[in-house]
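Side project, low priority. Logging it here so it doesn't get lost.
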Amino acid sequence: MTSADEHGTGEADATPDAATRAAVAAGDSAHESEPSVGGELARLYLRHREERRLAAGHLWVFSNEIDVARSPPSKFAPGQLVALHSDRDRFLGYAYVNPHSLIAARILGRDAAHRPSKSLFVHRLQVALALRKRLYAEPYYRLVHGESDALPGLVIDRYGDLCVVQVGTAGMEARRDWIEAALAKVVKPRVLVWKNDGGSRELEGLPRYVESPQGEVPESVEVVEAGLRFAAPLAGGQKTGWFYDQAANRAQFLGLARGAERVLDVFSYVGGWGVSAGARGAREVVCVDSSATALEYAERNATANGVAGFSTRRGDGFEVLESLHAAREKFDLVVVDPPAFIKRRKDAPKGEAAYRRVNQLAMQLLGRDGWLVSCSCSYHLESGALLDAIQKAARHLGRFAQVVATGGQSPDHPVHPAIPETRYLKGFLVRVTHD
C-alpha cells in the first residue's frame, strides 16, 4: 500500500468546466453524435499484420500499429468511437480512440451487429456484478476492474450503497452518462463519487477532479473485511479510499502467521494489515506511514475493532525501519507493502534495489524465528524478481528464508489472460530463521 504523502495524492484539483468535458464528448451516449462516414462510424485502420495480438484477445491498439496514411490520427477526437479494421479491411471491433495517447485505441466490443451503447454498459455491469455476488456475501469489493471486466479504462469500487468511480481514459470520460445510467439501473447506489484525481489522466489529456452528482463528497468510506470494520479517507485518500486487492492476502497470510505477538506494518496507510493482525490476537501492533491523516484513520480503525496495544510511527518507511533497528527492536511479523517502486520499465534496476533494501531492513527486525510479508504492486517487477530480492536480503544477513505462501490480487481484481498488465500484485509470506 502507499501513503497519501508518498503517492502524491492530496486534495483534488478543480472540477473541469463544460468546455473541457465537451472536448472529450465525441463518443456521447447517442449514436448519432458519433462522427460517421456514409452512416457508418469512421474507420481506424491497422498496419499490415498488426491485428494478431488483438485476435488473441488483447484490447489495446498502440499508436505505432495504426495505418496513419489511411486513418490519420488528427481526424479523430479524443474519446471518439470508431470501427477498427485490419489492413485487409476485416472488422476487428468497436473501439474508442485517443490520438494523443500511446495506447491509441481500446476495444469495447467485437460484435459488428451491436455498436457500443448504454445497454452494453448495463450488460457488462450485470456480468461483473454476478461474479462479485458469487464471491462475496457483502457488497464491499471492486465491482469493475477495467479491461478484465471488458470495460477498459473504468474502475468501480463498491462500499455498501456508495460507489466510487475512476476513469483513466478519454473514451470512458466521454461516456460518463452511460456509466451513471448503468450504475443506477444495475446497482442503484445511494451515493456516487467520481474520484478522477490519478496522475495517469494527464497521459490522456484529462483534468483531475473529485465530485459527486448527489452533491458533497463524503469525507470517508466504510469498509467491511473479514468481519472487521474500517474507515478510510475518500477525497484525500489513496485510489478509491481502500485497497481491496490485498484482502485475500491479508486473510491467507495472517491466518498462517498465527501466533505472531508483536507486529510491524510498514507503509500501513489506514492499518489494513496491522489492525487485522491485532484483531487476530497480536499483543502489540505498530503502524508506520508518512501520512498523518492515514495514521489517524489507522488509530480509529484499531479502536473500532477493539485492538489494544496499538501505536503509530509517522515517517519515511526506510528511515523508520533503520531507526527501529538502531534501537534493537524486534518483531514476530513485519509487513512491507510499499508503493510501486517501479512505475516505468526503465526504472527497474533502481526499483529492484529498493525492494531488496526494504526487505533487508525488515528482516533485521525479526527475531530468530519470524515472519515477513513482502508485497509489490509494481507491474514491471516480476514475481521472480521480488523473490530474488528477498533471497538476496536474507543471504546478506546470514538468514534462511522459506516461502510459506504466495499471493496475488483478490478475486474481485480478475486477470485478463491476454493482457499481462492486469496482473500486477504479488506477495510472499516468508519464514525467516537464523542459519
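Brief comment: The radius of gyration is 23 Å.
Revisit when time allows.
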